[in-house]
Amino acid sequence: xxxxxxxxxxxxxxxxxxxxxxxxxxxxxxxxxxxxxxxxxxxxxxxxxxxxxxxxxxxxxxxxxxxxxxxxxxxxxxxxxxxxxxxxxxxxxxxxxxxxxxxxxx
Length: 106
What we know:
Elements: E1 3-6, E2 17-23, H1 27-37, E3 45-49, E4 57-63, H2 69-105
Antiparallel strand pairs: 1-2, 2-4, 3-4
Keywords: DNA-directed RNA polymerase, Nucleus, Transcription
Family: Belongs to the archaeal Rpo11/eukaryotic RPB11/RPC19 RNA polymerase subunit family.
Domain DNA-directed RNA polymerase RBP11-like dimerisation: 19-89
């Protein structure tokens, strides 16, 4: 599991602009989270970078003039978790239905 830190130097931009550093995370989390947060109407910019391929760090940037970046990040992580839960539930339901059909055929 990764750790989270805030990149220094953003304080002058207000609470709506922050770069968060996720340790031991990569494109899988970055792209999924960016896709969710970038769709929020209060977000002006959302993106991520992997500074160097040999470092296990993900820099995740959020800019908003209407909400605090940390609140948007928390909301995005909660929405991503709900999406993953829904995906797992749907997959398991369909697998159970498939397996029940396969048993009937045999």
